[in-house]
Structure formats: C-alpha cells, structure tokens
Write the structure tokens for this entry.
Amino acid sequence: MTLCCFRCPEVALEVLDFLLEICFVMETMLKSHRDEQHPHQAEDFHRKLEQNSKLSGIKKDIEKLYEAVPQLVNVFKIKEKIGEGTFSSVYLATAQLQTGLEEKMALKHLIPTSHPLRIAAELQCLTVAGGQDNVMGVKYCFRKNDHVVIVMPYLEHESFLDILNSLSFEEVREYMFNLFKALRRIHHFGIVHRDVKPSNFLYNRQLKKYALVDFGLAQGTPDTKIELLKTAHSEDQQEDSVHHSVQRSVFGERNFNVYSSTYQENSSTKVKLIKQARVIDVSSRKLVTKKKIIFTKTVSNGAARKAAGPLNLPCDCYATDRVCSVCLSRPQQVAPRAGTPGFRAPEVLTKCPTQTTAIDMWSAGIIFLSLLSGRYPFFKASDDLTALAQIMTVRGSRETIQAARTFGKSVVCTQVVPTQNLRTLCEKLRGTNSGCRRSQGEVPKGSENDSALPFAADKPCAPEALGKQIQQQKSFQEDDGALEIKATDMKGWDQVPDEAYDLLDKLLDLNPATRVTAKEALLHPFFKDIRL
C-alpha cells in the first residue's frame, strides 16, 4: 500500500477513515471465512466467550453481595451463584467450622425491595416447620440495612428433567412419599406453600435425601400456627397483582414453563369464565367461534371502567366473544394466584378467593402425573384460561364445569371433552403400553419444552377440527409410542399397580373440598409397605 502525504488535513482524515473501513470489512470477511471453514471452532469460541462473560457477571454479583452484607466476608467463602429468581438469588458458599472442616451452605439473598413482613414470614416458616420431614431449615440470617441473607444447609441435587426418564418406578414411589411427608409437615402448621414444583423439592438421588424449599410465596390457613403469615396475607394479594406474570426459579433450576406467544391460539377448547351470580337463558344466544380461543371478562384498568354504565344493569355479553360495559365496570376480583404456570390448581386459575392447602396437593398431583407419564412439563399455557382448557382435556369438561360451581364459578365450554383414563394416558405417553412400541434405542419424540398434549401448533382450532384433535388426544397416535425395552430393563414400569392411578385421580380431584390431603395420601394403599 502506497503512503501519501496530503497538504490538506481534512483530505488526509477522510482517506484514513476510508482505509480503516476497508480494513474492518476485510477482517470481518476473513473471520466469516474462518467460521465457515471451522464451524465447530467458531461455536466453541463463542461458547467460551459467553461463559467468560457470565462468570464475570457472577463475580461482580458476589463482590456486590460482600459489599452489601460485609458480615459475610469473615464467615463464608462464596463459590458461585447457583440460582436466580424473581425475588432472590442463591449462592453456594463454604463455611469454616471450628473443627477445621468446611461445610457447604446455600446463601439466599433476598432483593432489597422485598417487603419486610414477607421476609420475616418466610424466616418463621423455615424456623418453625423446617429442619425435619424433608422441609428445608435455616441455620443463620444476616441483615445489613435492607439486604437480608438467609443461610441454609446445601443439598446437592439433580435436575428433574435430567433424571425423569431414568427413574425406576420404586424411586418414583419413594419420591412422592417423601414429598407428601414434607407437605404433611407444613400443612400441620397451617402453611400453604403455593409454589410446589420439582425445582422447589430438591432431590439427591444417590443419598436419597429430599428438601422442600422456597417459602417466599407461602400463605397461612385461617388457623395457621405461623403468626406472621396471618399478617402477611394482605401483602400477598398485592404482590400477586404486581408479579403475576413473572416466573420464579429457585436454586438454579431453569424454568421449563416458557411459552411462545402463539400457543394461546392453538388450545383445543374455547373456555369462558363468568360470574356464577349471573344466570341468564343462553339458548337464544349464538356462540361465536374465532381463531382467538380464550376470552375473559377480567380487565386490569382503565378508561373503559370510567365510561361504563350503572352496576345494576343486566349483563349483555354472557357466552359471547366480547366484554360489555357492565362487566368492565365491575371491580376486579382479588384472589391469590401465585405459583408456576402448569402447576396451578383449578381454584387458583378461576380466582377462587378461598384457597386452602388443597392447592399444594394439586401441584403434587401434576408432579406425579409427569413422573408416571415421563413428560415434563405436562401442561403449559400462556394464560390461566388456556391452562384450564388443558386441564379439561384430561379431567373432562363436564367435570370441570361441575367442580367450578362448587366454589362459585361458572365455566362455559363450546365443546364437550370426555375424561381421560389416567392409566391409558400415562402408559401411552411413557410407552409401556403393549400396543404402543418402538424399536429399541429410539428416543421418544418431544423435547423439554414439549407439552404432553399433542396439539398442532401451526393450525387454528376451528370447531370442525376440534373433534379430531380431541380424538388424537385420546389415541396419542400409536405410532408415537416409546421405547421397546426388555422386561428386565423396564424398572418396574410394566407393573404399575392400580393404586398409583387411584392416588393420582384423588390428587387431581377438581373439587378442592374432596381432594386428598397429605396425611391421607401417606396412608393410601399405594404406600402400604413404606414405613412412615
């Protein structure tokens, strides 16, 4: 390249900029060529770059935690961040004991915006109910200004998804037994966990140790023995309205209930939730079916309410696809709805104001359903009414409508959906049905983000196609079975007793008043030879 001298500095600068731009383009082209020639090396490079960036961010977070709570410096050596949720971050740390040994601890740093009463209530749950029967306890608590760190024993655990399809039937039985022990413990103290899910029930497969964690959303029953939960109840409802769309992740377990925005367009059933008090003759009204599947009369605010008519006017939108001004003018119903999508009970989805420990038992039933079927997450939906429609595909529309009436709700469904046989459903999904086999070694279809419900994601759910989809739900396409495994490799899945599905049926009882309790579940014949 020839170097020139320019008398005019402006011209020299322009030429220099031009040369630099050419060099940048050439460098980009060479890098692109290298990436094409060595794609694996390029992927490794980018992966290492992301890891280094992540590690750098975690290192900064640890430094900030030490600055925020300086008491930790002389007691703990924080190793890494192992979890991050909406309201807290969890770190793995080691503590130097007087014996000279090191002990692993989990440090839960609550975000400064957490309400002090909620923090105190969580601590009281851990100190009163924790430390036994598979409920996580607390060792220490540190506070500096508005920063609070709860120190708990660290339980090394496996990811639920990683071990789901390798668990033997006996391991599943032990898992559920220990989960019910933990729920019996907290329910005895009048604690409703409200966020029971696999990532909040830690499981060490090798040591056969279990721990129910994260009482950040816990609520008290009317007779709760946790005094602070009585006071925190009103705060819960305010937090629910603020954080209702945020998903929580605890102890590093990634949240698998992440949905695409288009999923709500493809639910199998059109559902509408209405107030039970409005009983109007709908025989003359026409049900309008559109591509938009879910409709709800609940609105968050706004201008529409101000322009709405008097409250004593009759509703004019019952069982239609619109919301009238009368319904818009009604005050929004406030009810706890915390929890993770896919695990919420029907009474939570329908905003029933009275919620009991039965909501935890429903969530335990969903976990059991995933374990028996080998599918996780089993349900996934972008909103509560879509979630209710998915529950209908398993438990039946008539049964859901009838159960809703028991807690003062009315559900309108455009299609009659029959109840599924739970054994048939789980066996076909897991592939242990004799008429539903594959060649040995073939992996079942579906990834961690696949729902167990085989709805077409690229087609609208028109009424004429709905019947076919429901039929597919019943058959689950027999060519989409599971592994053909020798009897010696079945790990007990070819001999699942009827008691397992009887217990599952009782856990997934749509009526919370008759749903099985944790104490009753432990006495169920399914656990007849396991000692309490």
Remarks:
- The CA atoms of residues 374 and 430 lie 5 Å apart.
- The longest helix spans residues 39-68.
